[in-house]
Amino acid sequence: MADYNHRETEQKWQQFWDDHHTYKPAEQTTKPKYYVLDMFPYPSGAGLHVGHPLGYIASDIVSRYKRLKGFNVLHPMGFDSFGLPAEQYAIQTGQHPAITTEQNRERYIEQLKNIGFSYDWSREVRTSDPSYYKWTQWIFMELFRSWYNKDTDRAEPIETLTNKFAMNGTTDVNAVCADDTPTFTAAEWNAMSTRESYEITLKYRLTYLADAVVNWCPALGTVLANDEVKDGVSERGGYPVEQKLMRQWMMRITAYADRLLTGLDTIDWTESLKEQQRNWIGKSVGASVKFPLGEKREEGGKGRVEISHSSLSSLSSPSSYIEVFTTRVDTIYGVTFMVLAPEHELAAELTTPEQQEAVDAYVNAAKLRSERDRMAETKVVSGVFTGSYCTNPFNGEQVPIFLADYVLAGYGTGAVMAVPSGDQRDWNFATHFNLPIIPILDAQKDVDQQADNTKEGHYINSGIINGMTYKEATATLIAWLEERGLGKGKINYRMRDAVFSRQRYWGEPVPVYFKDGLPYLIDESDLPLELPAVDKYLPTETGEPPLGRAEGWKYTPKSPKGDLNSYDYELSTMPGWAGSSWYWYRYMDPNNDNEFASKEAINYWQNVDLYIGGTEHATGHLLYSRFWNKFMKDRGYVPQEEPFKKLINQGMIQGRSNFVYRIAGTGREGAPAVFLSLNQISGQEVTPLHVDVNIVENDVLDIDAFKKARPDFAENAEFITEPDGRYIVGNEVEKMSKSKFNVVNPDTIVEKYGADVLRLYEMFLGPLEQAKPWSTNGIDGVYRFIRKFWRLFYKDNADGSSNWIVTDEPATPAELKVLHKTIQKAGNDIEAFSFNTSVSQFMICVNELATLNCHKRAILQDLVLILSPYAPHITEELWAALGNEPGTISQAEFPVFNPAYLVEDAFEYPIQINGKVRTTISFAIDRAPAEIEREVLADEIVQKWLEGKSPKKVVVVPKRIVNVVI
Known about the structure:
By secondary structure, the chain is α+β, with helices and mostly antiparallel strands. It is 32% helix and 19% strand. It is built from 30 helices and 38 strands. Strands 25, 26, 27, 30, 31 and 32 form a six-stranded mixed sheet that branches. The longest helix is centred in the last third of the chain and has 19 residues, at 813-831.
């Protein structure tokens, strides 16, 4: 065979793998399992760029290695194919999103196959396939049919709750439920109508309807998740986003808050990612406190209201008090104002006529800022006085009520008791609005200059806790509140229940219909509830979601009582995270029509052993997936509490932009542009212009290609090059983006260099978890390595042919040493997910074997095996050439490292004379220093440098050096 032909070889083996289902795991096996999963992509029209395959290559290396180590490996791929991009394209063109989604999917599969991934394509799933989202809808139904029992600390069927009600009412019910859930006796429950009792259960179900403040994007006509909004606009399209109170489906993820926290201690994830989840969940231990409403400060008065504890304890209506959650109840005597979120349900009621105009303007401005922006802004103080007051229950002081957008309606109670002496944000606010700042601890310092949040010292200006320490004061205050029904000790979480509605078309229909204003599940036998046809993918003229356009889309229940009426379906669809919150289970059994996966499959594959994906999913997909997995375990559908044992976040491959430099002022009004090469721009005023990186090689511009690509600049341009005629471009590391002309298509690299080179090179760029810039400047070295590896097996002839030169001679100790160093390094590195250092070792190994003129089967067969996870195409070809059955390399065994081959029997000592190395001499490892000294001094070269003199000293450092001092 002639020189290695990567195009022919790679296409050959990719077709072989497809035809023979090479990577389909065994159904019945005694082998241990290993489940490797990539975060599945959204199939966009742009296809893959070279940054996308980084994590896929790493997971593929691990998958191939684990097969060689005797594991039954599940390594699937699919597509998260619902979403806004396809819908926006449908709005613009009128083409159904399913069509563009399928076209994009086919393109992705083509690109992924070109890179040689060992996916079992027979298990492919797509979230937009009705046979898949049937089970997403089923899981929603199971959540609706469940409640969270705090006593058992798990989700249970709703029937166990209604049985409790029938026996003892709410007496022994300890549940996660709505705040306004009533209490009742068993007799009252049993006397309720069917509708009344059903309405009660809606307050307990794990998915429910509620009014929630959401990110509403009018231009897109949908609610957006926090991670879909940036700087007050939608990430997709840059449209304005406002905060809006809307009726939404919600998921009680907060029921699992503590389990989501404690579960982090059981999984092998990076500490930084765990910390992101901990911060998002935001567990706080503190107290809830009720501040009564209705008292107004008299003009010139001191602001104290004499009000009895008995009247305070009679507070019953939520509109008669403001409830706050605080982690520092000990500071309550330092409260000088109250801050509510602009969206707080009492904001309108508390606004006095005098303040109405100012409040309206502030609230409208706050709607245009995302929650993320509001929380991030710490330097600008803004707020507005409502004109109303509440009362501090401990000292009767009247407290003015403000609105400020740094308080969020959905976090805690949407209200903050402000203690400016102990909180810097409150201090800034109080200073801005000229409000009192009261010190409450004798250890606080300079509170007239800044806040001091110390817990040290003893309390002052603090009524019943004066003189106490922090621990004493906290216990005393909570006991006082609980005794009077004014509050209680409480654990709070920053995380809120998840919004589960999107007012768009291209998503999973919610399997719910409405009867007399209440939501009911459709019959399970009617799943999947498929998306209906619509004339446009826009909201209706009356503001309903696009599904409101569907003609005759109604539900007729299968009622045993003969109810043949038709009812309206839910018109919102599920959010983007719905289908991705359980997909790893469907890969286990993708064609099962009767259940989301069989018990046998789930019990065998259990959960994901290795999950690789980006950090952008830390507080979205990963939290929701863990939540759904825990729920499914509670209900007995899966055996594991956590879905992903080990998680690795791959770093981003950034673009390496290139620039040409146009002399400022040239190229205008028909005059030719003048471009200076990088080394010619010194002292010149130039304008840098992005240039397509695909027409640059080793920082040298293809001028003709540039002229064709940018005739507006370059058709009549003059290029001032280097003396050797090259035009050198500038460069800068930026995000890979079409607008910066720095997107590199992996197909281009595969065509020119081969998939094996792309795989090796992406791993060679640096540690998997780190960001790194893409540059092809070093890819030629990997390309040469592949060909040097090939020449260990074949010798090129002058006529273009080549000869097979592999022999059956026994390996020498030196050759075995080189091989086993590489076996050890490759195995250890893959186990440690340190792929870049393995590539370096492969290069060293091939160079050393070439130097040793090694062409021996005893060495090369094992070398083929250890390189195969990284470069599967060339190694498949050579494995067959070595006489093995074609395609069986994935069933072979990874070579076993033998440390005996690395044991040194001799050492090459550098011989220094007066500090300079003059020669080297090899000695057996066990030679005594005295013998080494005697032979060194007798050496012919050493004698020459001694010039007949006797050395003053000879120092022998075993296995290091010999130093002769004269």
